[in-house]
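Bug #77: duplicate submission created two jobs. Keeping one. Sequence:
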Amino acid sequence: MLALLAGCIGTGGFLDLDDDGFPSIASGGTDCDDADPAVHPGAVERWYDGVDQDCSGGSDYDADGDGVDADLVSGADCDDRDPTVTTRPTTVYADCDGDGVTSGVPVVLPCGEPTADVLAVLRPCGTARAPAGGFRSAASDPADCDDADVDVLPGPQAERWYDGADRNCDGRNDWDADGDGFVRVGADGRAGGTAPGVGDCDDTRADVFPGAPDTAADGLDADCDGTRELDLDADGFVAGPASGGLPGGDCDDGDPTVAPDRVERACDGLDNDCDPATDDRPDPDGDGLACELDCAPDDPAVFVGAAELCNGVDDDCDGEVDEGLRVDQYWDPDGDGYGAGPVVFFGCPVPGLAAADGDCAEGRADVHPGAPELCNGVDDDCSGAVDDVLVVVFEDLDGDGLGGAAVEVCDPTGFATAGGDCDDSDPTVGLGAAWYADCDHDGYLGAEPFLACDRPAADALVTSICGLTGVSATPPTAVLLDCDDGSSAVRPFRSDVCNGVDDDCDGRVDEGHTAWLDADGDGLGAGDPVAGCPDGVTFVDNALDGCDDLPTRWAAAVRGEPGDELQVLLDQVCPDGVVTLADAVWPVGGGLHVDVPLSLVGEGTATLDLLGDGRVDAHAPARLEGLVVTNGRATGLGGCVRGADGLELVDVVVSGCAVDPEPVLADAAAEACWTGACGGCVFASGAVTASGVVLEDCAAAAGGGLWVGGSGVLTDVVVDGTRTEASRVHAGFGTAGTDGGCALGRCGGGVYARGPLVLADVRIEGSVGTDGAGLYTTSDVDAVGLEVVGTTSSAGAGAIAHDGASFACTGCSLRDNHTDDGFRPSALESDGVVMLVDTEVIGNHPDVVPAVYACQPGQVGCTARWTLVDTVFDREPCRSRRRVGRVSRSMGSRPRWSAGARSAWCSAGRSRWWATTCRAARWRCCSRTVPSRCGTLGSTRVASR
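Kept job's structure:
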């Protein structure tokens, strides 16, 4: 007993009974339970199980550390995830329209988030609905003047004039944009007390209104009386003599380009400088050419570069008339485009004449060179021959469809198109009898017959059939046929030799011979013998080799055929060997296990049907290629495939799989799967690569399609219709432990990742889950072409990145995603660095909450910083619950930022996009078309290329 106790005492005399590396408190150490190796300082705390795993000394029923136990375990804390929420009533201020500013009306809430019943009583927004922007602990100053309209709030945002709304709450009249006290005609009924005047003719200038001082000849109707100024075109000159302090001499007071001080421009038809002596030559025909290029200034159809027409005019001004267009012409009475006889005219084409001759029947429009030749006794194409369209046919005297003598006729009606009739007077006799030849003189006839009316002569067979001499021919008989009539060494009943040839014509090659596989080329074979001959290279005549001294493994490569025992094939392959499966359905009851590194490759559509009982369980690095894996069901981890570090999937389809919960969490906890049921289609405890993979219709408590514990590289992968389901053993809040914020244990309906992900052309569609219906990750994501489409979550977001994980996405699409939680985003949620480039975030629901969300700066673990480049939203992309302002700006204006989350609407020309940060980041918004016109909003650059 003393010896046993001595074994539990480490250096320094400390007692460590459970051998977890931490001495007990009784012996001066820090282990608060020295009988349980899972309990010691630094261990992962599992809340609500009554055990203080990390020896912190705090209550195991107070997860948020606010000093009050959760109401789920008979405590009083109604939200044990938020240390600011306990049992105390809270006075808050509602943000009904979600613009970040409250109306200033206090509301007293009971403990926790307001339920539908509480909202129905309090009605903070005039209805029973929850405020779109949530509640604030302090009232906004100044308050929102219209808390029912998200576009109305105090601040520097731009006023939208004439819509009847005071959008910046500054109290100005919305119908008097220039603030001169006058409104436009038609707005008099909405003038209000601050703008009693009506008739403002320019509501963009405060110096223009009825009764304003009006300066003559300045081009501005300042008093809105409608009188015209002396200088009508505002070019600084008046017509006639000087007047009103302006010089005279304007020869066209309606054109500002015409005045005495203007420079004369050539060929524009204007006297620009009002001096007739300098006027240029006009362009009277208006053809737009410089005067010196127009050879016919009175004809707009004639100019340099015009198309030359056969009209007696030099259309293109090259000095020649109708060049290349005049031709010899002939009489053409029948109008078929061909004439006959001598040339009657040279010039432009004339109706009734033709430019081509050679007509042999002038008077018939259907007869001319090039016309189709018909069998009608006429030379239709003027070729000199009549009915020269003869075809070769055969006389069929007995009407059996086969002819005798060949003839050429114009009309093949009544003739046969095939000859060879042995007796054209007897319809029962056709091409003759079947004959066989013995070309190789071995006494056996060739297998292919030939037809002949009479027994062919030997020399005829030499030429047409065999190409040999001394042949014989006979009609078909009940004799064995030669399988190779070109070789006398191949015939029935001959002894088979080891030469790769079917010597005895029995359909088998080298039967009766045995060889062994020599995979490593050392001249020694191994494994079971195979039928065939040793070739001295791949197969040898001995079985003296092994496979790394493994008595049960010998083959470097095995090909399986239907009926083979698949587990036996896997067990006989050497490490790093290859198992190839024929194109077939392979029923695998009880699953498969892979104990050494190997590749499992399918041909065609080779299918592993797991029969609802088991999975492919790889305990070593494994490669699956060209396979369909379906109908799997396993306990704990991986419904169809479970892989160790180094799992590789290439052109694989995994479908119809599910995971049953582990009865105990020991195995799952070792793999960091706190729910005990992870990876509906595929579970990878370590690194995984996937290319050309489809994961569909699978379910698990976490990672409905794929669960990745290490790094993942996914290329051209589709995850379709996967889902998370509550664990039957560990269902309920908190009972499965916490995993990167996934306290409910139903995260990642499509993909769940604890390690870094690299994604290229990955599509996650129609997945269902509680958190991260499409993608849930606690490590960095680097994605190109990622699509998260049509996912459904009950707690929020198609994609979630927690634990400070970065999320970089280029050319991505987050669209048509849905969450049942009105206070959570539907597309993307992150507490780390996010960069979206050339990405669309559209069609996500509900739209009362932004589609993307970053944590509140100051929260534990929040490192939110957002960068958006060429990213399209169909509504505002980012909103923090503590956000108190929004800034709208255009290029060239200086923005004024308010505290909290920030966003800017940057525009240049026709290009617009949102640039948004959640509190921690600063922005620089740049024009798409003019990169040099950038507003400086801090050190971060967000620009379009």
